[in-house]
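We modelled the chain as a single entity of 239 amino acids. Its sequence is:
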Amino acid sequence: MSDDAALSSALGALADGELVDLTHALEEGVPTVPTHARYGHTRYESYEEGDVACHYRLTLGEHTGTHVDAPLHFIAEGDAHYDISSVPLDRLVGRAATIDVTDVGPNETVPADRIREWEAEHGELTEGDRVLFRFGWDRHWDTGADGTYYMEEWPGLSEEAAAYLTDADVAVVGCDTAAIDVSGTEEFPVHYELLGNEVYIVENLTNLEALPPFSLLATFPLKIEDGSGSPIRAVAIVE
């Protein structure tokens, strides 16, 4: 497809499609990996205090809320696409496949056969696709003590499934859990498999139930020099 045709197709999707927000709102007390910075929102100027403008200081980690992982997050050495500022933007926007795995229970993993079964029903994954796994885990997302279980016992991908996706040369793998590796792992095989093959990871998604088998997805990060990841505003466009 030519650049003009691709642009026309994208503009047509925007005009005719529905935007679906796949992003959790950032607010104090959202679930956070214990070793990561907690989210903070501190008022610095306000109208009530006589200031001419209003603004807040944000305190957050690169992997706070809905975010994307760059290879630097787990891979000690890399090439030109190693950190988040150098990730090619065209890898982060395009066709997405959404696979429903809500029957996968706590601390369980998705085998490669589940992906093959989905392809048999909906069509094969192609090079450069983005693949989203809907576990339904976002139902546990909440602030404070109410969100504690979100960071416990979440399901994930098997190493076999991750290898299947890298063999398919997909661009992004996403999930509505705290991490793409299953809860409790100390080896992080899926992170190493995906990020080691420049397959970027998007975590803490929400609203995946609103997506059909295929949609258009955009997951653009902040341009953080030497960044291991970045919070994003993940948006899908569906017909």
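As a brief sanity check on the tokenised model: The chain has a mean pLDDT of 94. The chain has one domain: 3-26+62-238.
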